[in-house]
């Protein structure tokens, strides 16, 4: 992805790859999906009313488990498009991910093509999910890792190119009752009030990116956690017979 310091008004012109979503398949599969996630987890969804029912929306959730993208679909009836590591697009898993609106990204060095895809999704008035922390962090609930500025940069770029349309960014907190969730563990997603990106356009580019990033981050967590140990020490390092770390009920 271009550097966040690049002026947000710059426009990229080239053919944009489409993220094809099988609408009829998703419509038929949604009841099965709902039954599965609500049977597997003790799940609750809060703040659904904060996600606009139409228009361009950027959802920015915390990233605590590989389950996160799966659960996101229960927050809104709208069809999601989301980026996922290109390493995940293998075999049947990769085929299913594409069916449900995922598209690959090189997390180490996102390409201009990835940016064009994100811009195209939002300019069509669709909903895009970006995990702005960059990877999974096994943090307690309401902790957030310092965000990369790419999500704010993208939102401001798209808003600049659509002056007549209001782009909304919705921070989402993902909480689990244990550090590595399994069958019948608690899971909770909470969408926080939408941020109107157009309110940042009258600020200098760098200031707008910094301010929007800070506001998104504040919605994602109350405690700024810079530790990387949680990411590097998952539950499998527990001693034999040890219990999984519990965060209590969510």
Q: What's the arrangement of secondary structure elements?
A:
Blueprint (H helix, E strand, L loop, with lengths): L22 H18 L1 E5 L10 E5 L6 H5 L7 E6 L5 H9 L2 E4 L6 H12 L3 E3 L13 E2 L5 H12 L6 E9 L9 E6 L3 E2 L8 H16 L2 E2 L4 H4 L18
Helix pairs in contact: 4-5, 5-6
Protein described:
This protein has a single domain, classed as Glycerol-3-phosphate (1)-acyltransferase. The chain is 30% helix and 18% strand. It contains seven helices and ten strands. It has helices spanning 23-40, 68-72, 91-99, 112-123, 150-161, 205-220, 229-232; strands at residues 42-46, 57-61, 80-85, 102-105, 127-129, 143-144, 168-176, 186-191, 195-196, 223-224. The strands form two sheets. Strands 1, 2, 3, 4, 5, 7, 8 and 9 form an eight-stranded mixed sheet that branches. Strands 6-10 form a two-stranded parallel ribbon. Strand 3 (80-85), helix 3 (91-99) and strand 4 form a beta-alpha-beta unit. The model is unreliable at 9-14 and 234-240 (pLDDT under 50).
Quick recap:
The chain has one domain (23-237): Glycerol-3-phosphate (1)-acyltransferase.
Shape: globular
Subunit organisation of the chains: single chain
Tell me the number of structural domains.
1
- The succession of helices and strands, N to C, reads HEEHEHEHEEHEEEHEH
Terminal residue distance: 36 Å
Largest sheet, in brief, is: 8 strands, mixed
Mean pLDDT: 86
Strand content: 15-25%
Q: How many beta-strand elements? A: 10
CATH topology: Glycerol-3-phosphate (1)-acyltransferase
| CATH level-1 class | Alpha Beta
Give the % helix.
25-40%
Helix run count: 7
- Structural class comes to alpha/beta
The CATH superfamily turns out to be Glycerol-3-phosphate (1)-acyltransferase
Q: Could you list the spans in which at least 5 consecutive residues all have pLDDT below 50?
A: 9-14, 234-240
Q: Rg, please? A: 18 Å
């Amino acid at each position: 992805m271009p550097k966040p310091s690049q002026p947000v008004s710059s426009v990229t012109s080239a053919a944009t790859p489409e993220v094809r979503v099988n609408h009829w398949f998703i419509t038929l599969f949604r009841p099965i999906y709902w039954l599965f996630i609500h049977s597997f987890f003790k799940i609750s969804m809060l703040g659904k009313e904060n996600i606009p029912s139409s228009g361009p929306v950027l959802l920015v959730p915390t990233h605590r488990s590989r389950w996160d993208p799966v659960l996101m679909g229960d927050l809104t009836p709208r069809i999601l498009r989301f980026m996922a590591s290109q390493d995940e697009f293998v075999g049947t898993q990769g085929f299913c991910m594409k069916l449900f609106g995922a598209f690959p990204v090189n997390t180490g060095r996102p390409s201009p093509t990835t940016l064009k895809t994100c811009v195209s999704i939002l300019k069509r008035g669709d909903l895009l999910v970006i995990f702005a922390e960059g990877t999974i962090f096994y943090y307690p609930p309401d902790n957030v890792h310092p965000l990369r500025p790419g999500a704010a940069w993208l939102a401001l770029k798209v808003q600049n190119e659509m002056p007549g349309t209001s782009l909304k960014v919705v921070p989402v907190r993902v909480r689990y009752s244990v550090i590595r969730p399994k069958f019948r563990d608690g899971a909770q997603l909470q969408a926080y009030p939408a941020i109107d990106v157009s309110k940042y356009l009258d600020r200098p580019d760098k200031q707008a990116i910094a301010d929007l990033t800070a506001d998104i981050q504040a919605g994602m967590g109350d405690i700024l956690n810079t530790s990387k140990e949680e990411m590097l020490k998952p539950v499998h390092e527990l001693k034999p017979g040890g219990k999984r770390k519990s965060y209590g009920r969510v």
